[in-house]
Amino acid sequence: MSEPDYFGALENVAAVQTKASGPTGKLPLSDEILRNWSSGDLFGLTQSVGMGFDPRRVLGDQYLILSTQGGMRNPDGTPIALGYHTGHWEVGLLVQAAAEQVCQHDGVPFAAFVSDPCDGRTQGTQGMFDSLPYRNDAAMVMRRLIRSLPQRKGVIGIATCDKGLPAMMMALAGSSSLANVLVPGGVTLPPTVGEDAGKVQTIGARYSRGEMSLEEASLEGCRACGTPGGGCQFLGTAATSQVVAEALGMTVPHAALAPSGQPIWTKLARDSADASRQMVLRGQSLRDVLTDDAIFNAMLIHAAVGGSTNLLLHIPAIAAAAGLKRPDAAAFRKVNQMVPRFVDCLPNGPVGHPTVRLFLAGGVPEVAWHLREQGLLRADAITITGKTWNELIDEWRVSDRRQVCRERLVEADGVDPDEVIIPPAEATRRGMTSTVCFPSGNLCPEGSVIKATSIDPSVIDEDNVYRKRGPARVFTTERAAIAAIKGQTEPTIKAGDVIVLIGRGPLGCGMEETYQITSALKYLSFGKEVALITDARFSGVSTGACIGHIGPEALAGGPIAKVRDGDMIEIEVDRVSLTGRVDMVLEPGAAEPSVEQRFSARGPHPDLAVEAEMPADTRLWAALQQVGGGTWGGCVYDVDEIIATLQAGLKARQGQ
What we know:
- This is Dihydroxy-acid and 6-phosphogluconate dehydratase.
- By secondary structure, this protein is an alpha/beta fold.
- Helix content is 38%, strand content 11%.
- The chain has three domains: 58-190 and 226-424, no CATH class; 436-601, 3-Layer(bba) Sandwich (Glucose Oxidase, domain 1), CATH 3.50.30.80; 616-655, no CATH class.
């Protein structure tokens, strides 16, 4: 292989230009502008025409279109350079549509990009250590970009997936004095034949256990994404975040979960650009939309659809960014006790419809209508349209859009819309239960969380209670746990075990998702007979007897740090009352008279440690969010509390 010649003669050096004529025309300046505008605002006009913008139009209202676009596409959609995931692959088309619409009304569109990682791509890798910290970092960068365009009237935020979309909501909420509108980036379609993007992530575990062939794994791994753009086909964190954005009133109606790349999806960007402009004309801002009632509606609709438990981190973070009270575990418990789930969408059952079917069945407006009929929705809350939920629902009920979408679902897939968004009374009759339960106990005195609606029905007792008693299998890394699940280490995980995964909270590794484990347990034949408890969190597509967010986390002194292999663990989750417990119990004949004495006699697990590969900036994030309220506070930065803690620490050190 020959060495490259970096300093050889250039081809056609005479073509290298040293000056150019510049834009023609002149800026539409006035005496008042020149006397009173800042030099930065004036220089901004120079920069705009320098990029080729018509100088006659530069004084129009400025709108920032901020997106999470990733990758680079040819005009025909083929890749020049790949994005990290399908969710940000096509959103540039939404940016283009929104910009064109801004120009229709003589506005001046700007576009900026803060791309996002893929939680699916980083599962089981060191990249997962940056997943949750990325959300805070991206939100800060987005807010800085918003503030760096001083003349902007509003922001049109376009995002799709697990961390980019919550970050965008936090950024828009943190600049809520503007006419901000959110555009959910839509969903990818399921393949005509093949597995969805959640199940396909288990091909390694199923192959290792002999439950699928190499040929089957190769085939399914290739065809899971039916279309090249949009978030995954299940109601995981990405799709749930889209639903929550609409529930908050931050989007135009019927925006969440639209099929990416199609005209009905592109129209959302145009409508959103118009909505931002109308907010400016009405003198309204996102601050008028983001209220305590909006947060309540988001929690309510999250429960009704059976959404991802990751939104227990993101909804409080959005509230904090908007300057509102952060909902705590008690608030989520109260909301979930009000409303059983009545949406049948992946990864929940009983059928598990893909997200595009939820969109066609009526999406968020249809769910909101049912909740209003139950007297639960705070329907006087205003949305970015300037209309209340009451007004939007009244229009939705008789709209052509509702009729044609529901008819299309029947025509295309042969599915009754009322089998996707099930009338609540019928859903209750079928035994569908509330979404989220918050067990406590001697292993989680500060609480924990489980998506109770998605435990396999065959392991639920007749009284709708999940009961589990089994020996602990303790792991301090996800790598070790998944190896045991795959049967690659001895002893392997077997039916009846309780996996105890510790040291994976914010302080240990950045609070990684453990979807490698939860997905394997769902799709392995014996997996429903295994439970998991951990101080980590779960992917939104996780299902099963998986209890996360154990508090305190092991590295913060939580009792879960003292569990050893063979300790007997007892779990009980009541899916009706939404109560539960996670306890270590003593076996008959145990030497200690009480569990408390066993705990007091033990130190932390000898292998418990901060992840050796944890990045320094993730360690800083973990420390700052711990001061700001930790996991149950949304993993956000409470600046006043952080400053007070630093000042107290400095005084203490000076006094030593």
